[in-house]
Design brief:
Chain lengths: 726, 726
């Protein structure tokens, strides 16, 4: 049984090997003409500049927190300073995964654009493989890091004369608790990366649009707009690096949550700890294998290829899970069986929660899809209400978002009920793991979206023919099903993983958390407030950072002499709805060279890094402050943040998604309702729907996704500080 | 001690006598010219038509629920069918208070307009006395109903051979538990009244504005707009009747909560039950006395008069509370003292929670004022962000609303902590009562706002000179401090009163509500979701009902022949920014007679009544369904709704208030930022701020205030059904 510990680093190495090979393949693809290369180079440099600035700030933070962990753990009986090492490793692995993913994404975007000149299938392949590198780097580093630490800590047990090693309950609990440090490191970095990246991407986006499209009247992604590169950098740091760190964190939290709960909720059964580890390792192998199934022939349907890859992997993994569980239950039977809460568990008791978790994730994804898709009643209602202006558009979008919380919450409740019925809180942990066992390939599909999006931007900026942009837009549209389901997994697994960590906190502190205890109630109230305050800070940060960007772009338009005539020319052509001549186009590209792109990039970078600190620290400090006052209040705090955070996250993501597609739906239809009125692009209704979409941007891309991390980071902090609270 | 029971009906009769006399006085005031009388008559008839339609629907609901309560209580041991009587009485008293308040408000509005022709002070007096009738009707009926039931139930105890009567613990608990029925009746009516009235007022407002101001280009409140009367009716049914039912409910819930908790949390101490009763009774007398202090001389500052009245009453009441508490503590000392959780309470232990509650209410009000007031940083930020359009205005408003939850929640947490420290959950109940002991005069100040607002509408519609409108606008602006503090009390008392009822639920069911119990967590999740779903339903209802109204107004503009030329004339005058000649004005008033005002009123009435049912039933049915599944889950449900509901209520009220004042602030300033750009009325920034204000309307006037009731109605339902769950 102990030997299974080596599965983790092995699976991690397999995934990383895949990443390495695929990165090489992508590097060999055609990177397009010199304009494309220049643009891609600017984006790549901007993205790396952001990462390095961000990591510098975070490095200081990591050192301080690691120091505190070491000092505190040498003070408390049974504590081990090794948790500091785990924390640093988790943070470093998360950061490195973000770095690898973004590195390849900024290579893949321009190569996708280049491939799109030839057709859809080659472009899909490049974009998907770019995403796959991201996915496999994330799961590979997670398993490698976790595996090496696990082996190290297990080895230490014998050194420290913990004779029983992993087969001894005390030793096992001690070992897996140290791994919480790894998870905390990953979560902290993810929180800052999500918030910082989210601020960057939306500040650049809003800033570029408001000055470029609205004030100067030039098209989106236009080379004359100095904020365009920053906007594209933003897509990478927000959507690629941010999402990577996010999923790294989710993945680690669900594995570590299941391990800790396996150890503390049982009589220290090694089987219960090794089961989630094994499932994660096998899931990675399955993911890698299935990336090779994502192929499409000329004229084939790429949607089927992508969905086939990710659903196929999930299906196979579910089937394999039965046998894995059966093996562990069988092995455990020899030593008296897996007992939890007085009941001897059978294979079905562990399989159902996992399958239920997977089903719940898919169901939430389907519901998410329903609320956010074009031509479904919720989006239709927003489109209808846009007829009477932006105010009714906004009210309708908020209504849809609020309402969309209901069914996902019922699904989560059902998953908790079922999982708990079969295997107690350990079942809840397995349900979270069930959703995330094939994260590798899911993330590949998720990450290829922003790569395609970026490819489109590069095509636009480098003046490629419109059919290239059309192809990249098509790529972006494909795989939306998987992306929606990815969202469902993100929300569902956040709720379930933090619930299982919450149960671990309870077991570790033995806090009496009766709901009517005033301390618990105070914690609940404060906890429910935090997601609101956190979201407000994140949105405010976007607004402030966008203002910085707007001021800079306005300055350049005003002060750079060559820009004014070029801008006037583009605007005139836009107003007259005519294409520019080649000569004019060349003049404009010449003027575009004078834009001070790097200043916009620098402003976005500084603004977002400065403003990510406060909301990030809020999440990390709040549980510590409350915890040292009262363990019961900290329990309340976690529960309050969990429930309010889940609601706000669903609300903000879905309202944002629905507004986005309502705008697209308005753009799709040239005329309706009344044949004499144009209700499509350019109409008042379209303007109203654009406003809704803009409001939705920081909802769905900054605050919403960060809330999923907020929930978990607070719980993992509570677990890590638990030994000092009792 | 038992004799103090008679204080309640006596105080109730005093308040009602005040109402009766003042109503007579108002009736004798000048009701203006014939046009004004006609308009006032239309508003009054429309408002009464709504009430009677609403009460018809609610009567059916009340009969069904009362029947169920009677049947269920005859099935369970120790249950008494008298709870059905209590429920009906509570519902009837609430409905009657709404009726009385609205009757006098629709008389006072036109008389305020008439008085405003003479000057500000007489107008203030009429408007304030109108509000005072509302306030005293609410507290008078509450105490009379509660008092008579209490006497009746206490008398029944001896009939049923409960020999000890109120001095016996079992008898006391049984008696006060029956009073929960009264509170549930009041809460149910309040919920429907708030939701129905809130839908009505905003649907009419939005409908009238969109077709009148936006489409036809005629001013607000114009007589040619057939929806204008409905809009004014809406102010009465939403702001007056809705607010009255709301405060009736809050007031009753806090008194009954303290009584129940006094009985169940102690060893059945009669002193603890009679204390809140006595405080409420004395508070009413103090309120009545202080209404006579609200006087202003010509040239005096009405703000000082109003604030003096309500703060004076609160201050005196606080001082009196010390002596009242001291009396009860002294009386209890003879029979061994008031013991709670093993500690013998002294005067200070009960006084501090009450004073703390009052202080917390004021503090929340001050914070509310800060977030919603012109020229303070939050509203300034919205004004600034309006420069870049509606999208940034909306994002800024939502940020402000989210952020504004933080300090009030900290204050509520501090109040809970302090109250609990001194006197356990009974202290929490007293804290809620502390905020509401002078509800009578507070409501007087609150209710005079909509009366002044309506007076302004009547002045506009009946073509009175502009200075009359200015005076009524000034009236509306005065007393904002008190109104903000009223909001603070509403939110604070809702949280504290439902917490104390929650504690009563726990004691009654003896449910084990450990926070990590999956059933509790499922309850928490579902409970946190309900306020979101409820708000979505309420906002959606406003949108749908507004659409009905828009369709009808468009039809009238299209089909009534005389309206088209008149509308064209008004629009032309507006566009040219010139006043109409007397002749034109007369023509237009003639055409206005052809508008089918009553059809718009009927449409608003039907639409709002139809759409109030679903959200209302959601609140009432959810705790029953969950409760019969699991008492622990119901506990979680209540806690989840409480915390998420408090956040959403604060968010929606404050965002709405901040948007409203951001718009006003933009209108105040003709030019700023850049001398060459008009940034005031009519500018793009103004348009953006109007959109924010419109989004805020259903936030602050429909969903926000209803959430406060939602929280309490669910808790009181849980308390009432508690005996069947164990």
């Amino acid at each position: 049984m102990e030997q299974l510990i080596y599965l983790l680093p092995i699976a991690g190495v397999v995934a990383l090997a895949y990443s390495f090979v695929t990165t090489g393949w992508i590097g060999k693809q055609d990177a397009g003409n010199s304009v494309m290369k220049t643009i891609a180079d600017q984006i790549s440099k901007g993205a790396m500049a952001f990462l390095s600035a961000e990591y510098k700030v975070l490095a200081g933070f990591v050192v301080v927190v690691a120091g505190l962990l070491v000092v505190m753990n040498t003070q408390v009986e049974g504590g081990s300073p090794l948790i500091g090492l785990a924390f640093v490793t988790g943070a470093a692995a998360s950061a490195f995964a973000g770095y690898l993913g973004m590195k390849v994404a900024t290579q893949a975007n321009v190569r996708t654009a280049a491939a799109a000149r030839k057709g859809l299938p080659p472009a899909l392949t490049v974009a998907f493989r770019g995403g796959a590198v991201m996915g496999m780097s994330v799961v590979g580093l997670a398993l490698l890091g976790l595996g090496l630490l696990f082996i190290l800590f297990a080895g230490q047990l014998e050194v420290f004369n913990d004779a029983g090693g992993l087969n001894d309950q005390v030793g096992l609990v001690k070992t897996v608790n140290l791994l919480a440090g790894f998870s905390m490191g990953a979560s902290s970095i993810a929180l800052f990366a999500r918030v910082g990246g989210g601020i960057y991407t939306k500040a650049a986006d809003v800033g570029a649009d408001l000055v470029g499209k609205v004030e100067a009247g030039i098209p989106e992604d236009h080379p004359l707009n100095p904020a365009t590169i920053a906007d594209n950098v933003g897509d990478n740091v927000g959507d690629v690096a941010g999402m990577g760190a996010d999923l790294f964190e989710s993945y680690v939290a669900s594995i570590v949550g299941a391990m800790i709960l396996g150890a503390v909720a049982s009589n220290g059964s090694l089987e219960m700890v090794m089961l989630p580890v094994t499932i994660a390792a096998i899931g990675v192998i399955v993911s890698v294998v299935f990336t090779y199934f994502v192929r499409v022939k000329e004229g084939g349907n790429p949607q089927i290829a992508l969905d086939g890859g990710s659903f196929g992997a999930a299906g196979i993994m579910l089937a394999l899970s039965w046998f894995i569980i059966d093996y562990f239950v069988g092995a455990a039977a020899e030593s008296g069986g897996l007992t939890l809460a007085g009941k001897t568990l059978e294979t079905v008791d562990l399989f159902v929660p996992m399958a239920g978790g997977l089903a719940a994730g898919v169901a939430i994804g389907v519901v998410t899809g329903y609320y956010c898709s074009k031509n479904k009643p919720p989006v239709n209602s927003i489109v209808d209400q846009s007829m009477t202006g932006p105010a009714t558009n906004i009210i309708a979008g908020i209504s849809v978002g609020f309402r969309s919380t209901a069914i996902p919450v019922l699904i989560i409740a059902a998953a908790i009920f079922g999982a708990n019925h079969f295997a107690g809180v350990y079942g809840v942990a397995l349900a979270a793991l069930g959703m995330l066992s094939t994260t590798g390939i899911q993330l590949a599909v998720d990450a290829y979206g922003p790569i395609s999006d970026n490819a489109g931007g590069i095509a636009e900026m480098s003046g490629l023919p419109p059919e290239v942009r059309e192809r990249t837009d098509n790529l972006d549209a494909v795989g939306n099903t998987t992306a929606a389901i990815g969202k469902g997994f993100a929300i569902g697994s956040a709720a379930l993983a933090s619930l299982s960590l919450f149960a671990a906190y309870k077991t570790m502190t033995r806090a009496n958390m009766e709901l009517t205890d005033p301390e618990v109630l105070i914690g609940l109230l404060l906890g429910a407030m935090l997601p609101f305050l956190f979201s407000a800070m994140a949105m405010q940060a976007v607004g402030d950072a966008a203002m910085d960007m707007i001021t800079e772009v306005r300055r350049q338009f005003r002060e750079i002499p060559s820009l004014r005539p070029a801008l006037a020319k583009v605007k005139a052509a836009e107003d007259e709805d005519r294409a520019l001549s080649d000569e004019e186009q060349a003049e404009i590209m010449e003027a575009a060279k004078d834009t001070q792109v790097e200043r916009c990039v620098a402003i976005s970078t500084q603004a977002s890094i400065k403003r990510m600190v406060a909301p990030g620290l809020l999440a990390l400090v709040a549980p510590v402050l409350i915890g040292f006052w009262s363990t019961a209040a900290l329990g309340g705090l976690l529960a309050g943040t969990l429930v309010a955070g889940v609601m706000l996250a669903i609300f903000m993501s879905n309202a944002g998604g629905a507004w986005d597609n309502a705008k697209k739906q308005v753009e799709d239809q040239k005329r309706d309702y009344d044949a004499s009125v144009n209700t499509g692009k350019g109409s008042d209704r379209h303007k109203a729907s654009v406003i809704g979409d803009t409001v939705g941007d920081p909802f769905k891309d900054t605050a919403g996704p960060a809330l999923n991390i907020l929930i978990k980071v607070m719980t993992i902090v509570a677990v890590v500080i638990a030994p000092f609270l009792v």
